[in-house]
Hints:
The chain is of the alpha/beta class. Helices cover 35% and strands 23% of the residues. The strands form 2 sheets. Strands 9-8-7-10-11-14-12-13 form an 8-stranded parallel β-sheet.
Amino acid sequence: MTDADNASLPFLNEETVRAHLNMSDLIPAMAKALVDYSAGGFKQPDRQLLEVEPHGGFFAAMPAVGQSVGVKLVTFYPGNAERGVPTHLAMILLFRPETGEPLAIMDGRLITEMRTSAVTAAVVDKVAKKEARSLAILGTGVQARTHVEALTQVRQFDDIRIWGRSNERAEKLAGEIGARAMTAEAAVGDADVVITATSAKEPILKGAWLKPGTVVVAVGWNTNNGRELDDAVMRNLVIVESRQGTANESGNIRGSGATIFAEAGEVLAGQKSIEPGATVIFDSVGMAAEDVAAASLVWEAWNR
């Protein structure tokens, strides 16, 4: 199959994306995208975000240029969770870097879902202790499930704890993935790795609950003023995907005034070192370079 020579631009639906994307390839690809971004190999503006009134949604454009060229158009409707519709929906358009010719359009919902947890896994693999065995996830949505899939690629967790605002949902998810449902404080307790994946507007994770050396990854987002992490959490060592993007978009950073220690790409490349035993906070808001790199992975696999 050729690409831009086709009479019509290929459209890769979610089923096709799923058939050509796997965590074992995606995690190292996301690590590379983070390193490339921090080294200047990817260029991207801040996410262009518009509120969709009166429907309580957001529409964003996320272009990136590097070894791959593309743009993600994404919607975020928090209320969709109650409608049985995904909260995040997206389309990604790829272009040939050498000529600017359009290559393909693909559904971006699954790419967004998988690249988020793959980025987490790449960072956790670098900064968490090798003997990490306990994982706490605050949240019961799509990201809770996909983070278990991604993180079990890089660590052997034998104790997974789940908390959700709905105990019924937490129990259901726990039963499906072999975890235990419990209160947020108990789940975090002595966990080695903690994931917050909620749409909280106010902190749901307290620093007083964390043991020294825990790795915390915050992936939930509900506007740039919404927070999942309290000030005590944010007083630890903070790394991000993009200094500028996170400073503008993260309610955890904006609300706490936390200092950013490094970008994840700098840590992955060995340019910034984290002292053993440090409590590390990875505040992840997502960025276009990740989406475009993941879409390129799908495109290459589909062409093969």
